[in-house]
Here is the input.
Amino acid sequence: MKAPGFNVSSASILDAVENTPIVQLHRVVPRGSARVLAKLEFANPPRA
Here is the structure.
């Protein structure tokens, strides 16, 4: 089953994110273990 809004033909994850802002979360995991990013859906630009 395909998830709504999921584009499997995207060249990278950044293509799927489009213009939605992303922030890095520094305090979620121990330093050096992983890079955690959050997609800020509430700040999504309005669609025409």
Summary: The beta strands are 22-25, 36-39. The CA atoms of residues 9 and 20 lie 19 Å apart.
